[in-house]
Amino acid sequence: MAKKTLDNEIELLGKIAEGNQRAFTTLYEFYHRKIYTFALSILQSESLAEEVVQESMLKIWVLGDKLTSIHNLDKYLKSIAYNLSIDLLRQKELAARTERAGSMNWKDEHNETEESILLNDTRRLLDEAVSLLPHQQRLVYQLAQVEGMKNDQIAEKLNIAPSTAQTHMKLAMRFVRNHIRQHTDVAVLLVLFKLL
Predict the structure, then answer these.
(1) pLDDT one-digit tens code per residue, 127-148
(2) Record: fold of 9-91
(3) Packing angle of the helix pair 73-103, 46-62 (nearest 10 deg)
(4) How remote is the C-alpha of 159 from its chain's centroid?
């Protein structure tokens, strides 16, 4: 029977809080299969389950000093994985509904003024989300999305590790998606898909 927790989990969390990558790797390797299997049972998709693993572990890494207040990491990670899985299911459902709405037979006549207002609102919402990002995430986002740079180019320009650039980009994209999702309806999302 597999061990439920690591013997030195509290010590590992302390080291991870200090930025110790070896301790993080140990934790990652121990919990990877557990999180993956749990997420797979909910999502029924290997790629989405792997995404949940990555996002869950990223959340652990960025917690910093707060890691030392976690008393049951197994339960904590399961809670994170569950919430992320449910969010992904909701996103899938929203995407399916949006696709169904987009494939309906629309009238040939469109109200250009209404579309223009909707487009402007969507752009404003996207700009607002980007402006709310922390400075470094905003820089990485703009270099990637506006200037079309790759992670390696961004890392070189900002003098950071490529993995750090990738992490900033993931966090920025997640924030922008969540911000837009919280402040919009399906019609605005349709316009946004055209913009992106």
Answers:
(1) 787 888 888 888 888 888 777 8
(2) Rna Polymerase Sigma Factor; Chain: A (1.10.1740)
(3) 130
(4) 23
HEC string of 104-146?
CCCCCCCCHHHHHHHHHHHHHHHHHHHHCCCHHHHHHHHHHHC
**pTM (whole model) above 0.70:** no
Q: Does domain 111-195 have CATH number 1.10.10.10?
A: yes
Cα angle at 135 between 118 and 28, to 5 degrees?
Answer: 100
- Domain extent listing, the chain: 9-91, 111-195
Q: Please give the structure tokens belonging to residue 107.
A: 């009238």
Contact predicate 32/54, CB 8 Å: no
Q: Quote the pLDDT of residue 109.
A: 45
